[in-house]
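HUMAN:
Could you generate one sequence with tokenized structure?
ASSISTANT:
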Amino acid sequence: MADNNRLVLAYSGGLDTSVAISYLKERTGKDVVAVSLDVGQGGESLETIKERALACGAVEAYVVDARDEFANEYCMKALKANAMYEGVYPLVSAISRPLISKHLVRAAHQFGADTISHGCTGKGNDQVRFEVSIASIDPTLKAISPIRDLALTRDVEIAFAKEHKLPITQTEKSPYSIDQNVWGRAIETGFLEDPWNGPTKDCYSYTDDPAFPPVEDEVVIEFKQGIPVKIDGRDVTPLQAIEEMNRRAGAQGIGRIDLIEDRLVGIKSRELYEAPGAVALITAHQELENCCLEREQHRIKRDIDKRWGELVYDAQWFSPATQSLNAFIEDTQKYVSGEIRMTLHGGRAVVTGRRSDSSLYDYNLATYDSGDSFDSKSSNGFIDIYGLPSRVAAARDVKFGNGIEVPSNTVE
């Protein structure tokens, strides 16, 4: 049963959420349960973060290594959907929020809390993603943001930490707002808010400068039903596949993205992203689909992929619409098995080879050499029937004097 005296806080271990523990207790009268997930963001250990949460006043600390769960159940769904918001951005933050929300709700049930708190501002996408996800799992839970709802600004944080002698060492604030996990890294704010300003090299962490690449790197990725299972012949888990491609594609500067993005809340924002592993894996997966999906199925799936990315970006991971699209996408992956060879070099992942036992590419149909099994005589009747509607419409246009004007041949 929920306890009116407890709330759950999505806890990162940084200044904002460390101060929020005591601040929320003081402002709401509720004891705080801190929840921290490792989704491949790097940095401090979960044990260190747990100890800090308790030292800052949390009554409980719920920590979990969710890297495999994130890779298996979230990143792989995004890979199967070739998810690229606005055609270029792998959904770095959007796919982690539903997972974090699931664990926030689980912790609320485990520790009897009736409220969940997150550290989002009032103008970003993540506040929507957290609160819609939480409501989709358990609509009885309330949500609150200390920054948005309780005026917890950075100057207030610093003063509050000093006044309450919280065990927090304030470090120099990054000029950027950064969110990262194993699928990628998002960088915004600071001087990047002027869209004329070019990125500087200190913006990047997951990728090296593509202008000065090492020697090209050839990689062979094997997929089974849309999931990478081997790299260069070695068995890999989804997490291992992402991590290895982050390292190898990142060394070549692959996956740097700079765009003006349409946020869910209605404003445009300038965003930088680094997603070397995601970009390389999606490139390989798309090319394997080119081989293995039937033409009309493939056309429909490209539309579905775009819509899936938009829905997930727009906080609809748990919605009925997304679940229905998941069913279609999963069905399309039945025959998406085989190998893709790619060359990684200088910011580009270029596919150079494909092979699959379930490919619909038929050499004997495609070749122009001897052994061609395609009956070219069939094309005459095909063109006649296929062009019939156009011919009938053209005859009507001529009848009413609206035919397409053809320039006369004149010799000067």
Q: What stands out?
A: Residues 402 and 408 are 17 Å apart (CA to CA).
